[in-house]
């Protein structure tokens, strides 16, 4: 750009919006054109670096396939491959049509409105939720992540770490045991910062053991790769727990006594023993030989082991119940389930126990803290199964037993505790204890947090969340209920969907079944592209991308790195919205006026953004979107730190204090190692489901972990001899980035990015060679997908692995829709409650498939 | 003074961010990746290793491409960087055959990423590239002239790349090569590349 | 005393107009107020706002004037306002991920 005609040469600070990490950017604009996107070194979120997606945002900004004008469908027939017959309309006509529909629905029954969003629109989705709440509907669904959502993992984030997601303490961890998460490798939270931090940890000698069916991008970087049969991670973890407590006799007794419900007395009915007056859980004091309320100042010590008689009833500390429960789960028991040798499990357990250094301490910021440099990470790989709740429980207990939860070296919640900007004390959240002494999150990005347990009710939402209040994330039930609401006791049908960038047809499960659930709904899409799900839309609105819009960004807990500095950013347009594209938030504000719901909408904004005088919105006047953003910043950070300050500086930061990062030692809130309330909750869910008349297997609502087979372990049709799994790539986000030609170009240089990883020996037995077209047929859906074989030694012989979320078919995505540009895994996955972990509504994303060389090789 | 780069394969995660930040910095046209990442697998299941290896022009001290260039278009800066003067390149592609690392690229025809459409970015950037000539990595010479590191070094999201003076024994690159056993690709060819790798 | 009750959010299917005004004694508690509202708008409203045990449902927040209230059983009257505004917010459970 060193030409003589430079009239303008600017670097504009903003944030990336191509995944949920929300990295800080500096965007270089010359003469009105974006010529470079760099990481902003001022932010500790990504420390000046960007992933391949981040640097490629230019091509998404200028992609001629972007939606530029409002469109309406002319073809009344809807279907997966039915061309909507798009016709350009004016914004005025679009808003008129939408407002008229919304007005009618609001008058008739506001619950008939659904909003579907995704994590890459997470700056807009919360605002759209204020809209749907004020409108009066309970239905919001993050479908863009869908099958890719952490679901059960997020549930335990709330129960054990007071956070949506977690990370190993990259500064101090010495042993990272990773069950199928992409941490440090180009996916998972704060991806760019963690790639740097984990690389540094590798260099200083942190051992990384990856337990994964596939030598994934993350497992490639591990010191040891342990291939495992998909969906059996819980068996591995249970056997490790068995070795820890029964063979090595290792646990952090001090931690268990003071920071968990390990000492709480459990009766023969599986429930807490409670005291007569206060009804709070009892513990056993072995010094006085008496039961006492858990919070009694008279306690001299807590018993973790033994059987005690309390008022004539026998009671055992929760830790003892857990320990006895673990007796049968030997490594020999786990070996045939996991295909991992008992010796390997025993060795890993021993390494883990030794490296946990129980009893050791470290001084940070002048504070003496426990030092437990081991972390157990897991994400979709281990939890995306029908046994999600009990599998995640087993994995989490490894961390709890050795006391490495939220202490130096261990597993850290991603911002469980915030003491706020020093000048204002905002934003502030601190985990606290409920009456039973168990932890309630200080902050939870969706509503409400999973604990304390909610009342079980007949479901009023379209996704069973009233009935199953433990579901924290993307509900696997939505298309099931939507297809037949009456059967589930839902007294209305969804009539309209506001779709904010989620391509749910490709990120949920069997697109045909999902399309059937949505095809009678009037759908309005705020879209960047005419992707597969917009085929079902009635109106498509051209959305401004993250480079063209303003927001106070997705300033939620998991977009700040777990260690380092607090960083709050701004997202601001680096170019004016191209053509007729508009910011979703601005359009929503216009709809609010048209629907005459300003007073209610502002009331929700004031309530949920905690806008207090003088920053509360006054309903007697109308605010622009940028004024609302300005109010939000000022209410958090003071009058001097409004929107103008943020637009100029890009990032406000301050150091994290040790008690924010390593908050557990000073917290009085305990976490469960025995999930007592699951049991009674399950009974209530069962009773309610029976009343509605839906058969629901609630047997997984249990206080202690188990391994249970998934559907794929038991479906044994002849010829269906592979498990298909999927994993994430560092160069694509879900399905939304596949039309980017730069990302396409690098994907083509990597045989695994668009191909199907298959064990070389297993492939050759089927006559399949490198690069052959193969056909993969699901036993569950009957659908067949095609891709090129990528032969490797780095995969379990029973498994094929499909990367990312390719296999597009929309004719409006000319780069992504070519055959061979990845595969859409969702064609293999059935929609149905029998494919879902009921307590967390997690979908099972492991499928039994038949693999054959394709007859047609072109 | 001899510019060189160290790529730490223990840190590298093979994300291809380097390939794409190169593309945005240098506005290379479709089909041209001055930098790419290959995967190398070794061993048998379950004892397997897969390593990501970024490849780009090695800026050899003894560049075989230079010897075969009939017009003098390929030349070496005093700082060691091997460069191409597009004005003198006639597109004979002898250099491409001579390069043992396969890191030279011929632009046969001007194309854009979206058929029939030139994005504003491409309009601004493609004036730097002309059809019928060979191009390759120049260690981001324009950035070096502005006191910046090459784009792939500045952006690497696992901080696997270090840039500096190989002739200076106390430079970061020299120290890394010494302390961590840095090695060159195909040393037996006598090309003496300026890119060193640290073992995975 | 005159009380103006406004309903916000996931309650609109039950309370089609978002506001109603009642003249009542200054000893009226929120619980009595909600009883009155339930008489007017149906038992479903009570179910939406209260748990089976009669506590405020966790997704319901009530403000008397500017003050968030936790107790249903204390008189609403602030002692000085001629007209007290009561705002009842019913939040929707939202999904994430």
What does this structure look like?
The complex is a heterotrimer of chains A (858), B (200) and C (97). With 858 residues, chain A is an alpha/beta fold. Chain A is built from 26 helices and 35 strands. Chain A has 4 domains: 9-61, N-terminal domain of TfIIb (Single Sheet); 90-142 and 476-655, Rossmann fold, CATH 3.40.50; 166-413, Dimethylsulfoxide Reductase, domain 2; 711-853, Beta Barrel (Barwin-like endoglucanases). Chain A is 27% helix and 18% strand. A 7-stranded mixed sheet of chain A has the order 5-4-25-24-23-6-7, with helices on one face. In chain A, helix 4 (125-135) crosses helix 18 and helix 10 (331-338) packs across helix 11 (342-355). The two termini of chain A are 43 Å apart. Chain B is an alpha+beta fold and 200 residues long. Chain B has one domain (14-114, 121-159): 2-Layer Sandwich (Alpha-Beta Plaits), CATH 3.30.70.20. In chain B, 22% of the residues lie in helices and 22% in strands. Chain B is built from 7 helices and 9 strands. The longest helix of chain B has 10 residues, at 17-26. Chain C has one domain: Beta-grasp domain (Ubiquitin-like (UB roll)), CATH 3.10.20.30. Chain C has 2 helices and 5 strands. In chain C, strands 2-1-5-3-4 form a 5-stranded mixed sheet, with no helix packed on it. Chain C is globular, with a radius of gyration of 13 Å. The mean pLDDT of chain C is 85. At the A-B interface, strand 3, helix 1, helix 6 and helix 24 of A face helix 1, strand 2, strand 3 and helix 4 of B.
| Shape by Cα distribution of chain A | globular
Proper CATH architecture of the largest domain in chain A: 3-Layer(aba) Sandwich
Roughly what is the average pLDDT of chain A, rounded to an integer? Answer: 95
Q: What is the makeup of the main sheet of chain B?
A: 3 strands, mixed
What's the total count of β strands of chain B? 9
Give the termini distance of chain A in whole angstroms. 43 Å
Side by side, the strands of the main sheet of chain A go 5-4-25-24-23-6-7
Radius of gyration of chain A (Å): 26 Å
| Percentage beta strand of chain A | 15-25%
Just name the CATH architecture of chain B.
Answer: 2-Layer Sandwich
Number of domains of chain A: 4
Principal-axis shape of chain B equals globular
Pattern of helices and strands of chain B: EHEEHEEHEHEHHEHE
Q: If you consult CATH, what is the topology of the largest domain in chain A?
A: Dimethylsulfoxide Reductase, domain 2
Cα-based radius of gyration of chain B, to the nearest Å: 17 Å
User: Beta-strand percentage of chain B?
Assistant: 15-25%
Class from secondary-structure proportions of chain A: alpha/beta
Low-confidence stretches of chain B: none
Count of helical regions of chain A: 26
Largest sheet of chain A: 7 strands, mixed
- Quaternary state reads heterotrimer
């Amino acid at each position: 750009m060193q030409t003589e005609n430079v009239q303008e040469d600017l670097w504009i600070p903003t944030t990336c919006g191509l995944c949920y990490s929300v990295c800080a950017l500096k965007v270089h604009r010359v003469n009105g054109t974006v010529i470079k996107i760099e990481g902003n070194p001022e932010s500790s979120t990504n420390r000046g670096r960007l992933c391949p997606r981040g640097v490629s945002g230019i091509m998404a900004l200028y992609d001629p396939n972007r939606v530029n004008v409002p469109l309406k469908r002319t073809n009344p027939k809807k279907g997966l491959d039915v061309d909507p017959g798009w016709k350009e309309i004016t914004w005025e006509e679009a808003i008129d049509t939408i407002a008229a529909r919304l007005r009618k629905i609001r008058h008739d029954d506001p619950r008939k409105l659904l909003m579907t969003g995704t994590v890459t629109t997470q700056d807009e989705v919360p605002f759209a939720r204020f809209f749907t709440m004020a409108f009066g509907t309970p239905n919001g669904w993050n479908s863009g992540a869908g099958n890719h959502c952490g679901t059960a993992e997020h549930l335990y984030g709330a129960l054990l770490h007071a956070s949506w997601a977690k990370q190993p303490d990259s500064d101090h961890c010495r042993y990272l045991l990773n069950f199928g998460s992409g941490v440090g490798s180009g996916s998972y939270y704060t991806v760019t910062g963690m790639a740097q931090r984990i690389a540094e940890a590798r260099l200083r000698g942190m051992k990384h053991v990856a337990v994964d069916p596939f030598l994934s991008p993350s497992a490639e970087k591990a010191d040891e790769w342990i291939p495992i049969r998909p969906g059996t991670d819980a068996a591995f973890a249970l056997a490790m727990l068995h070795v820890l407590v029964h063979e090595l006799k290792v646990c952090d007794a001090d931690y268990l006594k003071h920071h968990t419900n390990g000492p709480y007395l459990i009766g023969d009915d599986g429930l807490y023993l409670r005291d007569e007056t206060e009804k709070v859980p009892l513990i056993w004091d072995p010094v006085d030989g008496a039961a006492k309320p858990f919070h009694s100042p008279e306690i001299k010590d807590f018993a973790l082991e033994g059987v005690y008689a309390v008022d004539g009833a026998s009671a055992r500390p929760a830790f003892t119940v857990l320990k006895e429960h673990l007796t049968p789960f030997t490594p020999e028991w786990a070996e045939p389930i996991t295909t991992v040798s008992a010796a390997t499990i025993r060795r890993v357990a021993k390494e883990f126990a030794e490296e946990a250094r129980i009893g050791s301490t470290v001084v940070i910021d002048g504070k003496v803290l426990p030092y437990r440099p081991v972390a157990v990470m897991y994400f979709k790989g281990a939890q995306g199964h029908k046994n999600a709740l009990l599998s995640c429980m087993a994995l989490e207990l490894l961390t709890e037993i050795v006391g490495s939860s939220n202490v130096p070296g261990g597993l850290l919640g991603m911002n469980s505790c915030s003491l706020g900007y020093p000048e204002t004390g905002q934003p502030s959240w601190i985990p606290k204890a409920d009456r039973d002494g168990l932890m309630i999150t200080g902050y939870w990005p969706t509503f409400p947090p999973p604990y304390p347990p909610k009342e079980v009710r007949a479901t009023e939402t379209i996704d069973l969340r009233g009935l199953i209040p433990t579901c924290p994330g993307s509900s696997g039930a939505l298309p099931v209920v939507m297809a037949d609401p009456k059967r589930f006791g839902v007294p209305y049908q969804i009539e309209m969907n506001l779709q904010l960038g989620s391509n749910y047809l490709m990120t949920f499960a069997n697109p045909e079944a999902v399309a059937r659930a949505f095809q009678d709904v009037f759908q309005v899409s705020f879209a960047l592209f005419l992707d597969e799900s917009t085929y079902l839309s009635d109106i498509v609105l051209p959305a401004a991308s993250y480079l063209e819009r303003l927001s106070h960004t997705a300033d939620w807990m998991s977009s700040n790195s777990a260690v380092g500095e607090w960083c709050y950013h701004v997202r601001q347009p680096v170019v004016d919205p191209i053509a007729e594209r508009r910011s979703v938030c601005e359009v929503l504000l216009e709809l609010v006026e048209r629907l005459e719901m300003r007073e209610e909408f502002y009331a929700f904004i004031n309530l949920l953004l905690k806008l207090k005088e003088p920053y509360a919105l006054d309903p007697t006047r109308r605010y622009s979107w940028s004024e609302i953003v300005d109010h939000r910043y000022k209410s958090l950070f003071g009058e001097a730190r409004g929107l103008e300050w943020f637009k100029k500086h890009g990032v406000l930061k301050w150091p994290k204090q040790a008690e924010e990062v390593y908050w557990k030692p000073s917290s009085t809130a305990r976490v469960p190692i025995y999930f007592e309330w699951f049991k009674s909750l399950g009974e209530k869910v069962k009773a309610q489901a029976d009343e509605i008349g839906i058969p629901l297997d609630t047997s997984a609502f249990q206080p202690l972990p188990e391994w249970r087979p998934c559907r794929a372990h038991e479906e044994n049709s002849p010829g269906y001899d592979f498990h298909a799994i999927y994993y994430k790539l560092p160069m694509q986000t879900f399905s939304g980035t596949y039309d980017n030609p730069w990302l396409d170009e690098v994907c083509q240089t990597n045989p695994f990015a668009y191909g199907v990883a298959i064990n070389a020996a297993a492939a050759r037995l089927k006559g399949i060679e490198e690069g052959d077209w193969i056909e993969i047929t699901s036993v569950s859906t009957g659908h067949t997908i095609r891709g090129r074989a990528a032969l490797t030694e780095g995969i379990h012989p029973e498994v094929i692995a499909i990367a990312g979320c390719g296999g597009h078919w929309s004719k409006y995505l000319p780069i992504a829709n070519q055959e061979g540009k990845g595969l859409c895994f969702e064609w293999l996955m059935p929609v149905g409650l029998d494919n879902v972990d009921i307590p967390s509504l997690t979908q099972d994303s492991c499928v039994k498939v038949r693999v054959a060389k394709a007859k047609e090789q072109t | 003074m001899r510019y060189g780069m160290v790529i730490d394969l223990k840190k590298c995660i093979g994300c291809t961010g380097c390939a794409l930040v190169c593309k945005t910095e240098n506005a290379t046209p479709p089909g041209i990746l001055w930098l790419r990442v290959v995967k190398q697998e070794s061993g048998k299941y379950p004892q397997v290793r897969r390593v990501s290896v970024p490849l780009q022009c090695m800026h050899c001290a003894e560049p075989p491409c230079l010897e075969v260039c009939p017009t003098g278009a390929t030349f070496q800066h005093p700082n060691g960087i091997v460069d191409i003067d597009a004005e003198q390149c006639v597109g004979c592609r002898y250099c491409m055959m001579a390069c043992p690392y396969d890191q030279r690229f011929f632009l046969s025809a001007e194309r854009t990423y979206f058929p029939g459409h030139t994005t504003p970015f491409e309009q601004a950037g493609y004036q730097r590239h002309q059809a019928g000539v060979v191009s390759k990595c120049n260690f981001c010479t324009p950035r070096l002239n502005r006191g910046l590191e090459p784009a792939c070094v500045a952006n690497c999201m696992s901080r696997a790349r270090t840039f500096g003076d190989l002739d200076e024994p106390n430079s970061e690159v020299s120290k890394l090569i010494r302390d961590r056993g840095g090695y060159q690709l195909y040393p037996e060819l006598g090309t003496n590349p300026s890119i060193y790798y640290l073992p995975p | 005393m005159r009380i103006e009750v406004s309903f916000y959010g996931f309650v609109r299917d039950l309370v089609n107009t978002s506001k109603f005004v009642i003249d009542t004694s200054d000893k009226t508690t929120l619980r009595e107020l909600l009883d009155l509202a339930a008489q007017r708008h149906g038992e479903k409203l009570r179910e939406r706002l209260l748990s089976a045990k009669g506590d405020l449902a966790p997704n319901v927040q009530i403000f008397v004037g500017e003050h968030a209230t936790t107790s249903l059983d204390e008189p609403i009257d602030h002692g000085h306002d001629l007209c007290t505004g009561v705002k009842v917010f019913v939040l929707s459970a939202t999904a994430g991920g």
